[in-house]
């Protein structure tokens, strides 16, 4: 088991990443209530600010989850996090996950955030593996995963029961420590 630490602030060219606060609930609700966002990642759209606050206090506290803030407007526009890799008990591995407000899609922002969190995972947490899973229809997420240099491992069929009861297949990808080192060396990360 990898010891949980407080998330430390991170920065990229266009973004600041910091831990979530209870008072961020209205900003989380603003994008997480959009039905085009959560279901693509398997979660139900938030129905109230109170529900968003509860997610901050429970789900986000149990993992390392950052709020993504765009530097120009100072607004929270998404989240990115590392959570327990339940497929690899006893291995120094965490699972990457993310979501972004719809009006900010298509500008390379999540790829930028993901590359920063990948570096944090291998260099600061000392991971041996990072894992990410995504739905078959989620082409945008698959592109991010490819651009970051993860390796496709295979698809687990009829595995993931989402909030509405549907059971979906998931595509699984990993990056090993030595692959991270090579990608860093090659300037991909
Ligand atoms: C997935 C998500 C985070 C992408 O964020 P983003 O900042 O737009 O991603 P980026 O711009 O960094 O990269 C997206 C890539 O997918 C491509 N893309 C997006 N939609 C596409 C589509 N329908 N077909 C083909 N390519 C597509 C983009 O062109 C871009 O690739 P490129 O840089 O080669 O042009 C955002 O769409 C989102 O929050 N979706 C809902 C939640 C979610 O799916 N979370 C992930 C769960 S695994």
Automatic annotation (TrEMBL):
Keywords: Acyltransferase, Transferase. Residues 15-173 form the N-acetyltransferase domain. SUPFAM superfamilies: Acyl-CoA N-acyltransferases (Nat). One of its GO terms (molecular function) is protein-N-terminal-alanine acetyltransferase activity. One of its GO terms (cellular component) is cytoplasm. PROSITE patterns: GNAT (PS51186). InterPro entries: Acyl_CoA_acyltransferase, GNAT_dom, N-acetyltransferase. It comes from the Bacteria. Pfam families: Acetyltransf_3 (PF13302). Belongs to the acetyltransferase family. RimJ subfamily. This is GNAT family N-acetyltransferase. It comes from Lentihominibacter faecis. The lineage of its organism: Bacteria, Bacillati, Bacillota, Clostridia, Peptostreptococcales.
């Amino acid at each position: 088991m990898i010891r949980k630490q407080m998330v430390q602030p991170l920065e990229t060219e266009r973004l600041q990443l910091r831990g979530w606060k209870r008072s961020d609930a209205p900003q989380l609700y603003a994008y997480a209530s959009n039905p085009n966002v959560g279901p693509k990642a398997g979660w139900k759209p938030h129905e109230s600010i109170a529900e968003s606050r509860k997610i901050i206090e429970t789900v986000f506290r149990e993992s390392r989850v950052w709020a993504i803030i765009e530097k120009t407007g100072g607004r929270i526009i998404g989240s990115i996090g590392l959570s327990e890799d339940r497929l690899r008990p006893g291995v120094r591995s965490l699972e990457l996950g993310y979501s972004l407000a719809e009006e900010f899609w298509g500008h390379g922002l999540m790829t930028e955030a993901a590359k920063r969190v990948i570096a944090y995972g291998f260099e600061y947490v000392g991971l041996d593996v990072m894992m990410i899973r995504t739905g078959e229809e989620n082409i945008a997420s698959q592109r991010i995963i490819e651009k970051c240099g993860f390796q496709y491992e295979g698809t687990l069929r009829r595995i993931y029961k989402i909030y509405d009861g549907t059971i979906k297949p998931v595509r699984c990808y990993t990056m090993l420590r030595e692959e991270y080192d090579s990608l860093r060396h090659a300037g991909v990360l």
